Amino acid sequence: MSEFLSRRFSQMKPYVPGEQPQDMRYIKLNTNESPFPPSPKVLRAVNIDEVAKLQLYPDPENKSLVAQIADFYQLEPSQVMAANGSDEILGYAFMAFCDQQKGVCFPDISYGFYKVYAELFKINVLPIPVKDDLSINYRDYLNCGLTMVIANPNAPTGLCLPPEQIEEILKSNPHDLLILDEAYVDFGGTTCLPLLQKYSNLLIIRTFSKSRSLAGARIGYALSSAGIIEDLNKMKFSFSPYSINRLSLLAGVAAMEDKEYFEHCRQQIIMTREKTKASLLNMDFVVTNSCTNFLFAKHPRLTGQELYQKLKEKGILVRHFKQNKIDQYVRITVGTQEQMEKLLAALESILEVK
Amino acid sequence: MSEFLSRRFSQMKPYVPGEQPQDMRYIKLNTNESPFPPSPKVLRAVNIDEVAKLQLYPDPENKSLVAQIADFYQLEPSQVMAANGSDEILGYAFMAFCDQQKGVCFPDISYGFYKVYAELFKINVLPIPVKDDLSINYRDYLNCGLTMVIANPNAPTGLCLPPEQIEEILKSNPHDLLILDEAYVDFGGTTCLPLLQKYSNLLIIRTFSKSRSLAGARIGYALSSAGIIEDLNKMKFSFSPYSINRLSLLAGVAAMEDKEYFEHCRQQIIMTREKTKASLLNMDFVVTNSCTNFLFAKHPRLTGQELYQKLKEKGILVRHFKQNKIDQYVRITVGTQEQMEKLLAALESILEVK
């Protein structure tokens, strides 16, 4: 820390991303990347002719990508904005829709970045405890009078709320915004997209990092009313107008175009998840009912830390959160069938030698 | 604007980037892009095998790029950080090193984004008038007691201060940070990099968008003390940890490696600038003494707005700022020799028919 850092940040704890080892070949099941490469259309779109134009700025309005996303979801382009990863959009949303008067609430067990944004922008947080089974009780959010953030499906539990319950939350909070983080919705949750037509207090945030196999390109997007999208763009144009680079714009458009590949990948992941889950249950794991591309599991004979450590020793990275309520669990990204077989073999060996 | 936007932003005016027309082929001399494509090494580094790995997150610590930059400038890697464009780094710097107690000062004529950051983060600004010849009087910054931001060379004037004067500013403000924006320094200004060894209150911000021909890749970097770099990383990891995408990391490393191409391009631009400047002077333009990849010029017989408009009609885009003191000028990016010849021909025809 330098002597120049504003004192308001002296205690701030930044987000800690999952390990990204650059030195050794692990089976990486710790950051919920897709096991599948990007669509072949992406590989054609990001070509040498386009690399040769990198001296030019990208379109700061991301018109081509916004149009493609709007088309995919049958929305108006004015209802869509994109930025450099959904993290960036979440950051803009916390900045825009919370302040010292308007606090924020979110589940005490959720994406760890929410509390970092609140700390960064000095926003009061009301953490709302999840139930004993780690699920969210939607009644806790009725008439809450705060900006709300809910990941649906939730991370790292993998659990989802039905749109009917989200609708109740929207209905009871007409003057408060619900930021709905649908990063994982393509793997079996039900999107709340249709609720945009009925409720002006809904902001849906999505990402290309999971179901579109583009974590390395950094593309997130927001779907909402034209007014809320305008607010988010105001933030973007006041912080980083050219936030999506030229090549990622091309990659995003191509990935969105390839509906078939998208369907194929997400169905594969759902199938592999269910098969892996069945095997884990057979090995006496407790596994949540995940609607995502990861499994959240614990075992009666090993702590979460032990599971994480022993898998790492066998060359398999999973994610462990040292957090009350969930520290017995590990979060395991659903990889290829082959990777999952290696995971299961490793777990069998770990459990036997215990 | 939605009803949910925090009232503190209701009057905020975002940055307005230079026009990026997607529909027609202009000679674009309005956003200071390089007229040269990226280095051939970039074209080799960003290849289909790398595109095929875009399902994986980038390294959030940007180790390869940081190492390459540190090596180029003979600094420690702990003295370097990188992010998604220098705009993003400027944003982090305003957040980190200013607050409600510690205001900021910068020249009244400078990069238009500085005042947008101050507005975004509600930081008090002391604008310091430039002299009548548009140059910065370094004495105005001595013992100023505020965080200082100086673009050197300055934009859009193109003028630069010698390091000796920057040193005086640093010396007289030991407990205040000077953010030195060296976006354009490679085109003839003198870098203040050597001052990092002597002064702990200097933060230098640079970009790959101009002299490295990579505006479309979005890469900025900061050079400073390890403590200040740690502070900036704290901001980055609290807002957008994975801010540089995989392909831009590769492009950045390759561009930094190709010292020969970098030298060639910047020398070309300097030569073309001086040649164009001489022609403009012959046509009775007043032209500032630019150390950048643009020229800042006005003509006694035409307003800045007229110049901008008439050039646009002839298919040439330049930038005009509707701002007191400089609204008679246009800012003209130095393109290829051929583009400059077209510009001069267009200006000749405009001035004759006037």
Note the main attributes of this structure.
homodimer, 354 residues, Aspartate Aminotransferase, domain 1, 2 domains, seven-stranded mixed beta sheet, 13% strand
Q: Mean pLDDT of chain A, nearest integer?
A: 96
Walk across the major sheet of chain A and give the strand order.
2-8-7-6-5-3-4
Major sheet details of chain A: 7 strands, mixed
State the CATH superfamily name of the largest domain in chain A.
Type I PLP-dependent aspartate aminotransferase-like (Major domain)
Q: How many structural units, i.e. domains of chain A?
A: 2
Helix content of chain A: 25-40%
| Structural class by SSE content of chain A | alpha/beta
Number of helical elements of chain A: 11
Order of helices and strands of chain A: EHHHEHEHEEHEEEHHHEEHEEH
Q: What is the straight-line distance between the termini of chain A?
A: 44 Å
Query: Which ranges of chain A are low-confidence, i.e. pLDDT below 50, for 5 or more consecutive residues?
Result: none
**How much strand of chain A?**
5-15%
- Gyration radius of chain A (Cα, Å) is 20 Å
